[in-house]
Amino acid sequence: MHGAALAADLLESACAPGAGDPLRLEIVRTLARDLAEELKALAVLAGDETVAVEGALRAADVANLAACTAPELLEAGASRAAVAAYLAAGTVQVLCTLAEAGVGDARGEHEQNILRDARGTAWRARLAVRQVDESLETG
Predict the structure, then answer these.
(1) For residue 89, what are the contacts with CB-CB under 8 A and spacing of at least 6?
(2) Which residues fall within 8 angstroms of residue 18, CB to CB, at 6 or more apart?
(3) Over pLDDT 70: what percentage of the chain?
(4) How many other CB atoms sit within 10 Å of the CB of residue 76?
(5) Domain locations along the chain
(6) Alpha helices (runs of H) in 15-139, residue ranges in sequence order
(7) For residue 133, which phi and psi values (nearest 5 degrees)?
């Protein structure tokens, strides 16, 4: 989760004043800061599959926020936002793999929900990466 928190911090710095629309950038900075705080708080909790999925959900939020913001930033900020999206998406993949391994062969309702959340979160992270890739190709 520390990687996703770092990605959120990187996104916050990418949205420095003067890098684009001031109001939008302030909103993105605030969201990134809040997500970083949540990820840092989750990182100190006991590591089970529920915590891993909660961290993955927030990491996917960082990846998607960065992917949506990158095309609107000036060049240097856009590159930092793209790196933030890639870093957060990578963290999602790691956390989802940990959650799936933690569930193992258990097939109760709780475990099924964990698996469903992990798969949906991984899909969101892959979507963010595709968005950044397309933005960089057309930018």
Answers:
(1) 59, 60, 63, 125, 126, 128, 129
(2) 74
(3) 99
(4) 11
(5) 2-138
(6) 22-43, 49-69, 75-103, 109-138
(7) -60, -45
pLDDT of residue 75: 81
- CA–CA gap between residue 8 and residue 58 (Å, rounded): 10
The predicted-structure confidence for 72-103, as pLDDT tens digits, reads as follows 888 888 999 999 999 999 999 999 999 988 88
Number of C-beta neighbours around residue 138 at 10 A: 7
Predicted confidence at residue 139, as pLDDT, reads 61
Residue 104: closest CA among 91, 90, 118: 118
Cα gap 37→43, rounded to integer Å: 10
Q: Which of 45-49, 53-57, 62-66, 113-117 comes out lowest in average pLDDT? A: 45-49
What is the token pair recorded at 46? 């006991």
Which residues, including other chains, have CB under 8 Å from residue 127's CB and lie 6 or more apart? 64, 67
Question: Could you say which DSSP state residue 64 is in?
Answer: H
Whether the model clears a pTM of 0.90, i.e. scores above it, the answer is yes
Helix intervals (H) in 70-108: 75-103
Count, residues in the chain: 139
